[in-house]
Amino acid sequence: MNKFLRLFYLEIAIVTVIIITSLVIKNTKLYLASIVALIILINFYRPYNGTIRSTDDEIISPCQGRIIDITKSGKYITIHFYLNIFDIHEQYMPMSGQIVSQKAQMGHFKEAYLPNAIDNKKLVTVVNTKIGIIKVEQISGKLARTILSYVAPQRYYKKGDAMGYIKLGSRVTLSLPLSRVNICKKIGEKVDIGDIVAKIKLKQFF
Question: Do residues 52 and 157 lie in contact, with contact meaning Cβ atoms separated by under 8 Å?
C-alpha cells in the first residue's frame, strides 16, 4: 500500500470515529460538520479515471488546475498551475524520461495562488527527456504541507505515470526548455490531467 492510500485510510478512519462519537453524544453540529468533512475528503482523494492520449511531440499537463502564470527565466519557460481543494491532487509525468534528481526545499507556507508562493516549501523533480532537462515542482500552500513522491532517482517513467501528490490547495510548476517548445495554453485556462500544454518544436538544421 502506497503512502497516498495509507494517508487516505487514516483520515477517513479519524473522521468516521468523529461521526460515531457525535452520534453517541448526540451533537448535531459536530455530526453535520463531520459529514461535510467526509465528503470533502472523498472528493479530494478521488483518483483520476480518465485516459491520457497524446502524440510523441506533445507535452501534457502534470496536474488538474488553473494556469495562473507563464514565465520565462534564462533558457526555460515555466507554466504555473494552481490547484484548489476540489481539484485532483495527484501529479503525473508530463513527458517520458529518467528522474535525474529530487530535492526538497524548505520555505514559507503562503497561499498557493500568490505570486511569491513559488518560495514555499516544495519538492523539485528533475527529469532527463528527449528535449533535455525539464523540472516539475510540487509546491505546498498555506494548508497543504504534505508532499508525497511516487518516483525515484535514476528510474525511467513513461508520460502519464503517477509521480506524486500534494494535500489540499497547492501549486505545481512545469519548466521546459524555451527553445524546444511552443506553449499551447494561456494564463487563466483550466486544464485537466493529460491536457496538451506544449508541443515540441521541430529541429531546424539550416
Answer: no
